[in-house]
DNA sequence: GTCTATATCAAGATAGAC
DNA sequence: GTCTATCTTGATATAGAC
């Protein structure tokens, strides 16, 4: 078979294409190898095993999501818009990467009852980024002692948007719904401050 | 090995215990058989294959959820309470059955990129029940032309609650958050009617 | 209908050459 | 680092007796 110098990147690309759309367990390593045009031993040389491959594909994905979200925040002009930017960012992000069926991180978490330490850490870093950044963005919008509660609510709404994708809703509509609900939630939080 | 006359029920119980907590693919048939104390051939005689077993376990589960939800609605005393009853019902339901890690239906959907017709139908019937019943309950609460939009929002919130379980939140807190957000969403919908 | 024993097969992972 | 070829395992499903 042909030799591919960028085997590593090709494997990560194929993993995003296949494992994050069909599910990890439903995607045999063979299929990833065929799609990447790479030999088995190459995969194991780079990633150790299948879980290592999945883990590093998630890590690369998280970096991209981080960038997309951050730039959406940078473009927004009010504290409220910055807090809500996570929703349009999600819409934009999903057009820029091989679309997971819903959420690559939650999807992998759902089928990994006993993740190894590395994978566990990577999965946690997704929720970590989500809550930490929302917290920063919430502080200018609501009173400090309401920020944590508001963040928890927004994380739930954001997670709900992802879940709607799994229920078959298209991205635009799910994001629009999420934005609307998040708006109502913020109103209510602002109201409770007065 | 010992003979079990209620092999069918035992298999469904074991499936709920194992497959809906660990994930379907992560739960070998052998493990279900061992847990049920039943022989392989018995399983295949009753259910045809693994997917058949999963499907029927989901169907039984949906019937129970239906009952729990309906009785929570019956206990509520105002239209608004009846509409919101889905949240406390979820909390009660999860204490009454072997707890899936988050949601048995969404969990199976997430790892089944190509479900067979029976499984597909069963998975759809979950979302179907959710939206249809919420629609009935929403009509007395908001103007008719806002009911569909409100239902979509509540389905998202409900789905978000389930997703938070997957993110590791405990049931009580997730349900409480969902109830709070749903309240805000309904306020906003009522407001837009005025 | 249920059991024991086993067939079949696919999947993850490795050996060894280049 | 990458390839070809193969090993090993573990999982789904079936055969045949009771």
From TrEMBL, chains A, B:
InterPro entries named among the record's database cross-references: Homeodomain-like_sf (IPR009057), HTH_TetR (IPR001647)
Organism superkingdom: Bacteria
Transcription regulation as UniProt keyword: yes
Record-level Gene Ontology MF annotations: DNA binding
A family per Pfam: TetR_N
Segments traversing the membrane: none
Residue ranges of domain HTH tetR-type in the record: 5-65
Full protein name: TetR/AcrR family transcriptional regulator
